[in-house]
Amino acid sequence: MVKTEDLIDAQGVAGLLQLRHANSVSTYLRRYPDMPRPVLDLGTGRPRLWLRPQVMRWLLARRPDASLVGGER
Question: What's the Cα-to-Cα distance from 59 to each of 1, 23, 34, 69, rounded to whole Å?
Answer without folding.
Answer: 23, 18, 11, 9
